[in-house]
Structures are given as structure tokens and as C-alpha cells.
């Protein structure tokens, strides 16, 4: 099974200067809970945005066109076909965690969406790729708790392909 796990603002912004535009610990917690149920796939730039990769207790798979790209304790794949084969042979969900290029590449293949919608507008340079929501059914929705550490109103949504 393939899933997408991401957070976007009211305009679909997901990134700024190689990092996240917001600080929202509740979303990091949600991200961890979801992704710990399987393994993770990300683009090379998203890998570089993670402070101490790999993400622990999950196999980390990275997509890069660079055949010489190697990182310790990370599986590097070079094509969509390699990823689909890897996911098929795995008995765990492969959670696709971005960025934009990688979401675009798997938009027709993804089975489930784990989306955090942040109800604000941020400045950014990376935007979520288009998703055909008509092909998905919203199966769960929950308001995030706003407090002194989580100052941005947000909603967690889970969609399943129809
Ligand atoms: N809000 C969120 O949920 C979220 C999630 C993820 C990322 N982000 C943010 O988004 C930004 C990074 O995302 P991004 O969209 O710029 O980059 P990205 O998708 O993480 O990485 C792009 C790289 O992936 C590789 N790639 C892309 N398509 C490929 C293909 N078809 N085959 C093989 N390799 C391929 C290439 O690596 P090479 O150049 O090595 O060939 C490409 O440069 C950061 O700001 C990050 O913080 C936000």
C-alpha cells in the first residue's frame, strides 16, 4: 500500500528554503504515528531537510536520479518503477513523505492520504502537487488542539481511494 503523509497551508504551501514554513509539534506527532506503521519514501531534497537521518524505526527509501548518491542506512532508488517494485514486495505500507516532485510522481498510484491542513497562509517556495480529490473519500477528520506550543489552527484528514 502507498500513502501520502504531508501538511499544507491554505494555499497548498508545503516548504520554504528547504524546510517547513511552520513549527507545529502536534503535526510532527501525527506524522510519526502514521509513518511508524510502515516505511518511508522521500525525494533527495526532503532527505536533506531532515536533521539526523534516517528517521528511526522505519526503513528510509530515497529517490534520486544521481546514480552515485549514497547515504548510510538509507536505501537509494532511482526510478518510479524501482519504488513500485519495492512497495509490492514489502509487507508494510510505504508512506510517501514528499516533496512536491515525489507526490506528483505517485499521484495516480497512492491508496491513502494523510493530510494536515493548516488554516493559515505562509510564505513558501514549494507547493503540494495537485490531487484529484474526486477519486478519494474522506474517512476521518479531526481538529488539532491549539495551545501555546501549537499556535496554528489545523485539521487532520484521512482519505481512502474510492
Ligand atoms: N509540508 C510537508 O509535509 C513537506 C513534506 C516534504 C517536504 N517538504 C518540504 O518540501 C521541500 C523539499 O521538497 P522538493 O519538492 O523541493 O524536493 P523533493 O521532492 O524532496 O526532492 C526532489 C529530488 O528528488 C529526486 N527525484 C525527483 N523525481 C525523481 C524521479 N522521477 N526519479 C528519480 N529521482 C527523482 C531528485 O533528486 P536528485 O536531484 O538527487 O536527482 C530531485 O531533485 C522542503 O522545503 C521540505 O521541507 C514539506
From TrEMBL:
Gene3D superfamilies: Dihydrofolate Reductase, subunit A (3.40.430.10). Pathway: Cofactor biosynthesis; tetrahydrofolate biosynthesis; 5,6,7,8-tetrahydrofolate from 7,8-dihydrofolate: step 1/1. Keywords: NADP, One-carbon metabolism, Oxidoreductase. One of its GO terms (biological process) is folic acid metabolic process. It catalyses: (6S)-5,6,7,8-tetrahydrofolate + NADP(+) = 7,8-dihydrofolate + NADPH + H(+). It comes from the Bacteria. It is an enzyme of class 1 (oxidoreductase). GO terms for cellular component: cytosol. Its EC number is 1.5.1.3. Residues 1-161 form the DHFR domain. GO terms for molecular function: dihydrofolate reductase activity; NADP binding. InterPro entries: DHFR, DHFR-like_dom_sf, DHFR_CS, DHFR_dom. Key enzyme in folate metabolism. Catalyzes an essential reaction for de novo glycine and purine synthesis, and for DNA precursor synthesis. Belongs to the dihydrofolate reductase family. This is Dihydrofolate reductase. It comes from Marinilactibacillus psychrotolerans. The gene is folA_1.
Amino acid at each position: 500500500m502507498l500513502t501520502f503523509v504531508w501538511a499544507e497551508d491554505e494555499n497548498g504551501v508545503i516548504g520554504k528554503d528547504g524546510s517547513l514554513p511552520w513549527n507545529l509539534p502536534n503535526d510532527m506527532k501525527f506524522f510519526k504515528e502514521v509513518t511508524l506503521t510502515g516505511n518511508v519514501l522521500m525525494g533527495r531534497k526532503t532527505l536533506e531537510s531532515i536533521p539526523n537521518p534516517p528517521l528511526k524505526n522505519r526503513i528510509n527509501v530515497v529517490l534520486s536520479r544521481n546514480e552515485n548518491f549514497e547515504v548510510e542506512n538509507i536505501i537509494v532508488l532511482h526510478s518510479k518503477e524501482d519504488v513500485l517494485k519495492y512497495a509490492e514486495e514489502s509487507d508494510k505500507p510505504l508512506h510517501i513523505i514528499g516533496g512536491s516532485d515525489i507526490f506528483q510522481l505517485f499521484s495516480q498510484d497512492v491508496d491513502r492520504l494523510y493530510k494536515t491542513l493548516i488554516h493559515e497562509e505562509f510564505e513558501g517556495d514549494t507547493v503540494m502537487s495537485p490531487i484529484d480529490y474526486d477519486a478519494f473519500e474522506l474517512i476521518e477528520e479531526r481538529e488539532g488542539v491549539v495551545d501555546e506550543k501549537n499556535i496554528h489552527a489545523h485539521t487532520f484528514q484521512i482519505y481512502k481511494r474510492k
